[in-house]
Amino acid sequence: xxxxxxxxxxxxxxxxxxxxxxxxxxxxxxxxxxxxxxxxxxxxxxxxxxxxxxxxxxxxxxxxxxxxxxxxxxxxxxxxxxxxxxxxxxxxxxxxxxxxxxxxxxxxxxxxxxxxxxxxxxxxxxxxxxxxxxxxxxxxxxxxxxxxxxxxxxxxxxxxxxxxxxxxxxxxxxxxxxxxxxxxxxxxxxxxxxxxxxxxxxxxxxxxxxxxxxxxxxxxxxxxxxxxxxxxxxxxxxxxxxxxxxxxxxxxxx
Length: 254
What we know:
By secondary structure, the chain is an alpha/beta fold. The chain has helices at about 15-25, 45-65, 85-95, 115-125, 140-150, 160-165, 195-200, 205-210, 215-240, 245-254; strands at about 1-5, 10-15, 30, 75-80, 100-105, 135, 155, 170, 175. It is about 45% helix and about 15% strand. α2 (about 45-65) packs parallel to α3 and α5 runs parallel beside α9 (about 215-240). The chain is globular, with a radius of gyration of 21 Å. The protein starts with a strand and ends with a helix.
């Protein structure tokens, strides 16, 4: 990939090997086959097929470039968009390379929720049960639960921090926009059912004041709360899995 430095316009080049070299230098515990192509939704079948083939070629180059395979785990990324045949091809290509873990990419890019769940139901069983399955770019509570139901072990997303910087908080009863005028004299916590440091020590009114004044501390508080909310949610999901009641948990949560 050729691109330009955003500061001085200098020409730069990034290859699969260079991306792994950088991740090796950073000492990442989990590295990604950085050169996977993730087309937008929707994409034509022929373009997506070429994209999957390119992703597979790059994945093998990334795997061969990893200098510390015993210390740094490299995950392959399954692509294929909404096309079941291409998802099967991508999963087959990558599992044949025997990565330490596998990511599912190309979802949560604008497709309907039903499409995402259908692709997860198809793809997850194609990946080894004894290795981590990681769904990329998904972080809303409903998608975390739905992904876990379909065999996903790991998630990541900018959602909880991004919406926190806009003053939006996750709560047991849905999203709460702390900027709203109704919270100007509300001295209760963000979420009365939450036991995080923020909910135990700061009121909605105070946090709203900070956010409205564009004080960084306010965004730190909303970010802390959102991350705590999701971490606690996933602890509850793990408990529900262990007790074989995940579907009941989903129904109760919603």
